Amino acid sequence: MITAIISNSCGQSFDTLIAYALPAIPNLNLGTDQSLCPGEVITINPGIPNVTYLWQDGSTLTLFKQRSKKQSS
């Protein structure tokens, strides 16, 4: 913890500042871009341990399976 007295332009003073050391952001590499035929599935596995995931569908598992959209006729 770092203690300091900080005043803003409104005259409000703060006397405690807590500084957090954040871990480095992992390097994410999902590989080369891929094309899927209609109905095919691709599994994405970033392979980074000890992190949490939030995919576009709201899922939080390490692996993400994406199915390509079927062609409409």
- Measured between the Cα atoms of the first and last residue, the distance is 64 Å
Quick one: biggest sheet?
2 strands, antiparallel
The strand order across the widest sheet is 1-2
Provide the succession of SSEs: EEEE
Give the proportion of residues in helices: under 10%
Based on CA atoms alone, the radius of gyration comes out at: 23 Å
**Count of alpha/pi helices:** 0
Structural class: mainly beta
Q: What sort of overall outline do the alpha carbons produce when their principal axes are compared?
A: elongated
- Low-pLDDT stretches: none
Got a strand count?
4
Please tell me the overall pLDDT: 81
Q: Strand-residue fraction?
A: 25-35%
Description:
- The chain contains no helices and four strands.
- It is an all-beta fold.
- It has a domain at 35-73.
- The N and C termini lie far apart (64 Å).
Layout of secondary structure:
Layout: E1 2-7, E2 13-17, E3 41-44, E4 64-67
Antiparallel strand pairs: 1-2, 3-4
Which descriptors would you attach to this protein?
73 residues; mainly beta; two-stranded antiparallel sheet
Explain briefly what this protein structure is.
This protein has strands spanning 2-7, 13-17, 41-44, 64-67. The chain is mostly beta strands and 73 residues long.
